[in-house]
Amino acid sequence: MPDTDITAQIAALAALDLRDLRSTWAERYGDPPALRSAPLLRQLLAWRLQAAAHGDLDRATRRQLQRKGSGEAEGLHLGIGARLTRVWKGRTHEVIVEPEGFSWEGQTYRSLSAVATAIAGSRWNGPRFFGLRSST
To answer: Does pLDDT of 72 surpass 90?
Structure first.
């Protein structure tokens, strides 16, 4: 199929509601996933259409995605001993990258998000809290 055909098929998905998306999935692939999110099902259908037209994931990528266990916590790439600082509500907080995670006020956390949550008292994305990611 030409790229324009795939582009048109994907664009047409935008007009479908959840019921129609499920129906489209059933016609093409069998039983649809038990999702209640039209945007997510729309993305899955678009990915399937593109994979059929341009090829699926290569073997190495599939193997990496199937790996069990969590990946490395974001921020560890900064290196052991790196220091992250954040001023929160008038107080400066310093976090140190350790081999087993992130140290803050004598306690080690597995992720920057856990540290950020402890500092802020509510859930935060740690890399964003410490300025490693933009807020957009």
So the answer is: no
